[in-house]
Amino acid sequence: MSMTLDQIKDKLATYGQEHVLKYYEELDAEGKKALLAQIEATDMSILDACKNKEALTQKGEISPLAAMQIPEIEANRESFTATGIKAIQEGKVAAVLLAGGMGTRLGSDNPKGMYNVGLTRELYIFECLVNNMLDVVRQADAWFHLFVMTSDKNHEATVNFLTEHNFFGYKAEYVHFFQQEMAAATDYNGKIYLEEKGKLSTSPNGNGGWFVSLVNSGMLDVIKEAGIEWLNAFAVDNVLQRIADPCFIGATIQKECVVGAKVVKKNAPDEKVGVICLEDGRPSIVEYYELTEELMTAKDANGDPAYYFGVILNYLFNVEELELIWKKNLPLHIVEKKIPYLNEAGELVKPEEPNGYKFESLILDMIHQMSSCLPFEVAREREFAPIKNKTGIDSVESARALLQQNGVTL
Ligand code: UTP
Questions:
Q1: Which residues of 64-81 are buried (b: 16+ CB within 10 A; e: fewer)?
Q2: Which residues contact 281 (CB under 8 A, 6 or more apart)?
Q3: How far is ligand 1, taken at its centre, from the CA of residue 177, in Å?
Q4: Burial label, 166 (beta-carbon count in 10 A; 0-12, 13-18, 19+)
Q5: Distance 112 CA to ligand 1 centre (A)
Q6: What is the pLDDT of residues 306-345, one digit of tens each?
Q7: What is the pTM of this model?
Q8: What distance in Å separates the CA atoms of residue 340 and residue 338, rounded to the nearest whole number?
């Protein structure tokens, strides 16, 4: 640590965060050191952003971006698949599991991937994903690397769980872990909460930082050494997720796009998924809460709904292109969350309702940094079963039904 206590106090004063030293004098020497180091490492310049949240989500001019739809995909399936299989066999494709999220809506203390969706047997979310990967390993007769992103909050639990289960049959030397960065979490006035007397409340900094974290963790060397050219980043919570899908890989390569995005037809104009589009002539995604009535009902040149393809957090990124853009900042998103905190009496409270903000960057904003994008339609009943909640829409219940519909025994 290089900053002195006085310098730390100056930093806190600059950002109006002096309250985080409330219990400083109660801490032992080690606790004091750890708290000061955490304050030093925390980027506080982002905290003010919650005072003008609207300005953060300003969009440019939106126009439609045509998706490659299922009939076209079926007509070319053989050729796309052959191209994709070849890329996998040549070791050019790897997968990136984004598993650093907190899964607060599901409300389990364990990493989301440890959730058991089985009914008559154990079937964990991680296991569903590995099973889907093993389908491709068999089809290509080749292993591909898997990079698993965790956060400070769930790293140990994730690594232990997957190791104890022998990676559910995936080859251990093809699995790599790396950790994403954390960001401070605040109350509604932008004041950082404490989660312990000597620790600021933190929360993972969003799934948009995955490539930065991959680079910071030294994994780019592994990627370079292995000759990996494509990274398929995907969410932990879609149990029907097809990973390193050869047809999708082949289509993206043949169309000479630097990113492919799996999309589904929305089930209603106001479904809560981000839609793929062009923004100021470049590929982009408009979040559902930014979608105006006008865009929701707009038609394209064929008379079809113009913004009807929703992203499912399954993207194939070209590594060279990622290397060009990774240092550019992504927009900041401020999200209301339930944040455990110390109350006035210094007791830990785990709130039932959102009580403050966390600060995130999102992978969907990376699409706007890419020079070309292929939206690739998949059948939602076969590939989209996200688990966000316990019951209702996008829940354990709905995912179980979809798994069964796809022949998975629960
Ligand atoms: P969500 O947006 O659903 O967030 O993540 P979440 O934190 O998991 O869940 P809630 O909102 O608290 O209920 C979508 C994907 O992005 C990953 C998640 O693990 C999931 O695969 N993610 C999210 C990260 O890897 N890091 C983050 O900081 C946030």
A1: bbebbeeeebeebeeebb
A2: 63
A3: 17
A4: exposed
A5: 9
A6: 999 999 999 999 999 999 999 998 988 898 989 999 999 9
A7: 0.94
A8: 7
